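stage 2 :: seqdesign
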């Protein structure tokens, strides 16, 4: 099954991106990429131009950059509110 477009909503604006992607069953995904252990209960969206991102590495870089700019990073802490102060600083209320 092929689809020829997807819709992305970004800050209340709609942007149409023309792209070709395929809906695969979990079995089709496993047959094509055997590193995934899926079965027929799963579906996948495949795009030949797509890729995978290492989220842990990306998060580590964001933490490093934030600390480099003077931020205090507290892990496993619930955030209740984020607000910009009048002087431009960001105030985070945590629990």
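stage 2 :: out
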């Amino acid at each position: 099954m092929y689809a020829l477009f997807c819709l992305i909503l970004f800050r209340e604006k709609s942007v149409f991106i023309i792209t070709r992607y395929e809906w695969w069953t979990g079995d089709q995904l496993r047959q094509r990429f055997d590193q995934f252990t899926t079965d027929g209960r799963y579906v996948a969206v495949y795009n030949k131009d797509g890729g995978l991102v290492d989220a842990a590495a990306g998060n580590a870089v964001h933490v490093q950059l934030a600390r480099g700019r003077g931020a205090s990073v507290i892990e496993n802490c619930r955030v209740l509110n984020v607000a910009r102060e009048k002087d431009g600083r960001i105030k985070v209320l945590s629990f």
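stage 3 :: structure notes
- DSSP finds two helices and five strands in the chain.
- The two ends are 47 Å apart (CA to CA).
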